[in-house]
Write a structure and sequence with these properties.
heterodimer; A: mainly alpha; MetI-like fold; 12 helices; 82% helix; 0% strand; flat; B: alpha/beta; Rossmann fold; 2 domains; six-stranded mixed sheet; 9 helices; 10 strands; binds adenosine-5'-triphosphate; binds magnesium ion
């Protein structure tokens, strides 16, 4: 990203394409009488009346509850187990084939199993999200920790940093750029699993609302749900990027210097 | 005088293929360093100098033989040892500011916050970086980073300072400045120093004694007492006849073996 660009310039470069696409959608759907493709103006109105001010707010709230709880659990479990596997080399060697086996398993196929085990309620969705979203964090944590420079570790030992603290404030910290990449992957997985679990087996949530609207021929409602999902994904991603820029500023700074040398 | 550190019949083999069960990095290395002494270790690349330092500081265990610090066998790095690594750039933590890098060893030793910042500021001033505390290591030049690494190893006032080719990648002018800095902090803190270098001139200039390692597998081929008067001076000392004599002798040792 060229530094010379002003802030407004940068915002414009980012925004022109979505704005053009939205405008195209707006214009081309303006006079639409098709049941399946209602005008964008109607959809946006529904986003407002249904989601922002109307009855669908409860669905939004329960979806966010599933997502936040499940994702938070996934992050904790992923980093925790990743760090644990890193410190126990023998366990790691013994478990790594199974870890990859679980990783490549498409998580949505676990929905029936989760339903059997946990019913249809809150815990089923949270467990499902946490379980599926844990793997990218776990594998990235493990990988990042493995890649830690041995000099950084020797330094910690030479400075007298005790073992537990070496893991927390040196190894995990050094691996944090890669862990962040894992957390971001996991966020996408978590959103997918949130929707899928609400689709298949639920009486609440955005996924439920979308399917329910479609089944009752309310296509405007269906589209509004999709838009709300897109907004959630975008906001979550922006928040993520902002947090990353703050917490990992040292990483980007060091990398920029390295690149310039 | 009682030795601060001693290596007796240290042999270090890195596991791998080969007749002797791997790669022999050190073979039967014995020497000791007395309190307050400045000992330089010279030897060709791959002679096992870094390996020797790892054994000397307790970062690595010898395959056989023993390394002792203060009379006790080394198991980990003692709290009274400071280490400056060959890769100083990689040994400073990029996520911590210069001040926080230097404070880290104080923090793990439970030094209270107010004293930490006071000592950090002092040591930064004594390496000539009084204003760099808030910067990040990667915002500094190589020579400045090296001084931060030295400051970090000095801030907890170790009895023994171990440095692995600390000035190998800085320019000559900076290097002379840093050499004098090390001599000065040695006098100021009364610290014992073991200093690895490639550079014979540097070894003669700094050391009370020079340990010469042979070609690999490294073993001590000679220990040379340097009889130069102190305090040393970059121009006057290096002009002395004594200096030239030691230099020639050591060059001969390093070239032929
Ligand atoms: N962790 C290791 N595993 C296997 N072999 C190693 C390891 N560390 C060093 N060696 C080998 O041991 C020998 C001595 O290495 P060492 O780094 O101690 O040499 P050195 O004298 O410090 O070299 P230089 O002057 O290049 O720094 C080399 O042949 C090196 O390849
Ligand atoms: Mg070396």
């Amino acid at each position: 990203m060229p530094r010379s660009l002003s802030l407004t310039g940068r915002i414009l470069t980012r925004l022109w394409l979505p704005v053009v696409l939205a405008a195209a959608w707006w214009v081309s759907s303006a006079g639409s009488t098709s049941l399946y493709f209602p005008p964008l103006s109607k959809i946006l109105a529904a986003v407002w009346t249904q989601w922002a001010a109307g009855p669908a707010r409860a669905q939004l709230a329960s979806s966010l509850e599933h997502l936040v709880t499940g994702y938070a659990l996934a992050c904790l479990l992923g980093v925790g187990f990743g760090a644990l596997l890193w410190s126990l080399r023998h366990v790691r060697d013994a478990t790594s084939p199974y870890v990859y086996f679980l990783y490549v398993l498409p998580a949505p196929v676990l929905v029936p199993a989760a339903m059997t085990l946990f019913g249809l309620g809150f815990s089923m969705k949270v467990v499902l999200i946490a379980f599926a979203a844990m793997w990218p964090v776990l594998l990235n944590t493990l990988d990042g920790m493995r890649g830690v420079d041995p000099v950084a570790l020797d330094t910690a030992r030479a400075l007298g940093v005790p073992p537990a603290r070496r893991v927390l404030s040196v190894v995990l910290r050094a691996a944090s750029p890669q862990i962040a990449a894992g957390l971001r992957n996991s966020l996408q997985v978590a959103i997918i699993l949130m929707v899928v679990s609400e689709w298949v087996a639920s009486t609440d949530g955005i996924g439920y609302y979308i399917v329910n609207s479609q089944e009752s021929f309310d296509y405007t409602g269906m589209w509004s749900g999709i838009i709300v999902l897109a907004i959630i994904g975008t906001v979550a991603n922006l928040a993520f990027v902002a947090a990353e820029n703050r917490i990992l500023h040292w990483h980007y700074g060091a990398r920029a210097v390295e690149g310039a040398r | 005088m009682t030795p601060v550190v001693e290596l007796s019949k240290v042999r270090k083999v890195y596991p791998g293929p080969g007749a002797s069960g791997g790669h022999v990095a050190l073979e039967d290395v014995t020497f000791e360093v007395a309190r307050g002494e400045f000992v330089c270790v010279v030897g060709p690349s791959g002679a096992g100098k870094s390996t020797l330092l790892r054994c000397l500081t307790g970062l690595a265990a010898p395959t056989s033989g023993e390394a002792r610090f203060g009379g006790e066998a080394l198991r980990s790095v003692p709290a009274a040892v400071g280490v400056v690594f060959q890769d100083y750039g990689r040994s400073l933590y990029p996520w911590l500011t210069v001040s926080r890098n230097i404070e880290l060893p104080l923090k793990v030793r439970g030094v209270p916050r107010a004293e930490r910042s006071g000592r950090t500021a002092d040591v930064l001033a004594s390496v000539g970086l009084a204003d760099a505390g808030r910067k990040y290591p990667w915002q500094l030049s190589g020579g400045m980073q090296q001084r931060v690494a030295i400051a970090r190893a000095l801030v907890y006032r170790p009895d023994l300072l171990v440095m692995d080719e600390p000035f190998a990648s800085v320019d000559a002018q900076t290097r002379f400045g840093l050499e004098d800095l090390v001599l000065r902090v040695r006098a100021e803190f009364g610290v014992t120093v073991v200093f690895v270098t490639h550079d014979i001139d540097e070894a003669v200039y700094l050391a009370d004694r020079v340990v010469v390692l042979s070609r690999p597998p490294g073993t001590v081929s000679e220990v040379v007492d340097i009889s130069l008067p102190g305090p040393r001076d970059q121009i006057a000392t290096k002009r002395m006849e004594e200096f030239a004599r030691h230099r020639e002798h050591l060059l001969g040792l390093v070239m032929t073996r």
